[in-house]
Write a structure and sequence with these properties.
The chain has helices at residues 6-13, 28-43, 119-125, 137-142, 147-154, 246-250, 293-312, 331-345, 358-362, 391-403, and strands at residues 48-57, 63-72, 78-84, 87-95, 98-103, 109-114, 163-171, 177-185, 188-195, 201-208, 215-225, 241-243, 264-267, 272-274, 282-288, 316-322, 351-353, 370-374, 380-385. It is of the alpha+beta class and 404 residues long. Strand 18 and strand 19 form a beta hairpin. Helix 7 crosses helix 10 (391-403). The chain is globular.
């Protein structure tokens, strides 16, 4: 997996697929009671670490393993490590009044925020919401979060607000007795398997999206009691510069002010567009994929931006760039799939097709979803990875500054 994609995909990968159809759910209140018992179990657990290993299943059939490890110490410290393909990609350590975030391919910077023994709040302060990163449910509960906060953590930065729809007894993959609690959101479904004895999380299953664009995954939890040890050690920051947000952390990889890469892409209507030849206009490129659920939200805003740009009469061009689709797809198949997707979602905006992922790579693999903004002189002016707060208004403001 391409590491810069980790912001969007890790949030998805912490969720998991297909709700098993077993006996009829027993009701909403027993489900809420089971979740409350899980919350209390973590709150009373003392120091621990927990490992969640899962497999992400993309709509084109690809299956990708993921790992998330997190925990709390006796003195109120907390940590979270994201791993892909056996290698740590991001690490967060919170202790002694500060949260520090490091990324494996960014050697010169680290993100830092104040920390008052609320790991989820510290993550939000350094841009976790934009990056679709949430405090793990176990850590949220251990640090005193109520049931509403526990449910918010179960959304993992991607699902819409959850409602409990039922619960039923079940059996985990290893044969242990569990309680399955089923939850529903506007953009997906979620089932968590809670250990019948300890009440802690054992399994998590979800389906995000719908139809051919549905994203699935499956995960299992492993709880380890006791101090997390080295996991709570602050990383060596010698020679690194502190920045305020995860977005600032990533900009080190993006050569702002450099000329636009020379790439030519097919448009959905059969023409071609040479991005480097669009000098004279401010250009907004929204990189997305049909399987990327957060991209669907970003495309709603990009559709608004495209309509605004067209109506404004200003020298502004907005394009949605479909990339990182299944490598085996022919240009015709990618065109058909993108057309069906846009029609189903009701999106109307100019679309370019990055069939071989060449444009995505040329623009330094900014992640999914992401926006790249080019100034009127054809230089790289802005990068935004993840979902921006007030995205339409924010990008409009940046574009208007560049139009001057």
């Amino acid at each position: 997996m391409n590491v810069p994609r980790r912001l969007a995909v890790f949030a998805l990968a912490l969720l998991a697929p297909g709700l098993a159809a077993a006996a009829a759910p027993q009701g909403v209140e027993p489900g809420k009671a089971a979740l409350e018992a899980a919350r209390v179990a973590y709150q009373k657990a003392g120091p621990f670490r927990e490992i969640l290993e899962m497999t992400l299943e993309l709509p084109d059939g690809r299956r990708e393993p993921r790992k998330l490890e997190y925990g709390v110490g006796k003195d109120g410290g907390a940590f979270m490590t994201l791993s892909s393909e056996g290698r740590d990609t991001m690490r967060f350590v919170a202790r002694d009044g500060r949260l520090v975030g490091t990324q494996f391919n960014v050697g010169g910077r680290y993100a830092e925020s104040a920390y008052q023994k609320d790991f989820a709040a510290a993550l939000r302060r350094i841009g976790g919401e934009q990056a679709q990163l949430e405090g793990p449910p176990a850590v949220v509960a251990a640090q005193g979060g109520d049931l509403a906060a526990f449910l918010t953590a179960l959304r993992l930065g991607v699902l819409a607000p959850l409602e409990v729809v039922g619960s039923q007894p079940g059996v985990a993959a290893d044969g242990a007795a569990i309680v399955k609690v089923e939850l529903r959101a506007a953009n997906g479904r979620l089932t968590v398997g809670l250990d019948a004895a300890s009440h802690r999380l054992r399994e998590i299953h979800a389906a995000l999206g719908e139809g051919k664009q549905q994203v699935r995954a499956a995960g299992r939890f492993r709880f380890v009691a006791g101090e997390p040890g080295d996991a709570l050690e602050t990383p060596d920051l010698k020679g690194r510069t502190a920045v305020r947000t995860l977005s600032d952390l990533e900009t080190q990889n993006y050569p702002l002010g450099q000329p636009t890469p020379k790439v030519t892409l097919r448009s959905l209507d059969g023409g071609t567009v040479s991005v480097a030849d669009l000098k004279g206009s401010v250009v907004v490129l929204d990189f997305w994929a049909t399987w990327c659920v957060p991209c669907w939200t970003a495309l709603e805003h990009t559709t608004e931006l495209a309509a605004w740009a067209k109506a404004s009469g200003l020298p502004v061009r907005v394009f949605a760039v479909d990339t990182l689709e299944e490598a085996s797809k022919s240009p015709e198949e990618q065109t058909r799939q993108a057309t069906e997707f846009l029609r189903a979602k009701g999106f109307r905006l100019p679309v370019l097709l990055d069939a071989d992922h060449g444009a995505f790579s040329a623009f330094h693999s900014p992640g999914l979803p992401s926006l790249v903004i080019l100034d009127r002189n054809g230089r790289l002016a802005r990068y935004h990875s993840g979902l921006l707060k007030e995205m339409t208004a924010t990008v409009k403001g940046e574009v208007l500054e560049l139009v001057k």
